[in-house]
Write a structure and sequence with these properties.
Blueprint lengths: L5 H6 L8 H9 L3 E6 L13 H16 L4 E3 L22 H17 L4 E6 L5 H15 L2 E6 L5 H8 L7 E3 L2 H11 L14 H4 L4 H4 L1 E3 L3 E2 L17 E2 L6 H24 L22
Parallel strand pairs: 1-2, 1-3, 3-4
Antiparallel strand pairs: 5-8, 6-7
Helix pairs in contact: 3-7, 3-10, 4-5, 7-10
């Protein structure tokens, strides 16, 4: 077999561009594997269906380009959990169990080949609890550490304190934040003459809604989550203030998100795993039924 050039592997940030012998070298180099996870769903009258996939994947690939020695970026999982959005044409839904099992299978395959650090980067709000469950299962079943995060969590304070103009509810879905990011990445595909958003109706029409219900990606608002049919709380499919979006805001946020993802991966790459400790007085009589 021909010798593998470690420098070629060190410079490559795309998982699928490596050969299988080069994957062995990437494992030896202790690269972190990054998986973008998103959805294909409606984003109002002004944004295409691929918003979540484009934003999450673009951030991961940009981070990989900046730090190829630290990470490999997998091809994205572009479909997610969107049951509540199916009243809007074009949306694709994947059942929760199917979605979680798909992520577990992908990440477990990566762990099987020897990678010990895996990052799931989410781009769709309703995916978040399911991705967290998948990441937990991968960590507990394989011994690899699997971290999950939604990309906007990387820049929430920066966006809220230094960039955004909207108040609570203004950055929720097809909003000031997502529209700004899309304007920066692919502005020609934004239907600028159709931008039309408003806060979720439960914030304005239901007494106590603004106090209790979550309504914003980065400000959070109320502590409670109630997921109704999206069509029951918005006419256009856009929650928030997309009219405040600009390409410059998108550039600032994209650069900061990419920078923070590089920093996160660098930290995670060297983070030690904590040792499991058995506390039963006698060994359990059978293996845990939840493990492979």
């Amino acid at each position: 077999m021909a010798d593998i050039d470690p420098d070629v592997v060190r410079r490559e940030h795309r998982y699928e561009h490596l050969t299988w012998p080069e994957i062995n070298e990437a494992v030896a180099q202790k690269k972190v594997v990054v998986l973008p996870v998103a959805a294909i769903e409606q984003h109002g009258h002004h944004l295409p269906l691929d918003v979540d996939a484009k934003l999450a994947t673009s951030v991961c690939l940009a981070a990989g380009e900046r730090s190829p020695a630290s990470m490999l970026v997998l091809p994205p999982v572009s479909y997610g959990y969107c049951h509540h959005v199916m009243d809007f044409p074009g949306t694709i839904n994947v059942q929760p169990t199917t979605f979680v099992n798909l992520l577990i299978d992908i990440a477990t395959s990566v762990a099987y080949h020897g990678f010990t650090r895996i990052v799931l980067v989410n781009g769709h709000g309703s995916n978040h609890p399911l991705i967290e469950q998948a990441a937990r299962q991968v960590t507990l079943r394989t011994g690899a550490l699997c971290l999950n995060i939604s990309w906007w969590q990387l820049i929430a304070d920066y966006w809220n304190e230094e960039v955004r103009e909207s108040g609570p509810g203004g950055s929720a879905h097809a909003c000031e934040l997502e529209t700004s990011m899309y304007l920066h990445l692919d502005g020609d595909r934004v239907r600028k003459d159709r931008i039309d958003g408003a806060p979720a109706s439960y914030l304005t029409d239901i007494e106590g809604g603004a106090e209790w219900q979550m309504a914003d990606l980065t400000l959070g608002s109320g502590p409670a989550t109630i997921v109704e049919w999206t069509s029951s709380t918005t006419e256009t499919g856009s929650f928030g203030a997309p009219e405040l979006a600009t390409a410059e805001k998108g550039r600032l946020v994209f650069e900061r998100t990419t920078e923070r993802l590089v920093e996160l991966v660098d930290w995670f790459r060297s983070r030690p795993a904590s040792a499991r400790r058995e506390h039963h007085s006698e060994p359990p009589r059978f293996p845990l039924p939840f493990e492979f």
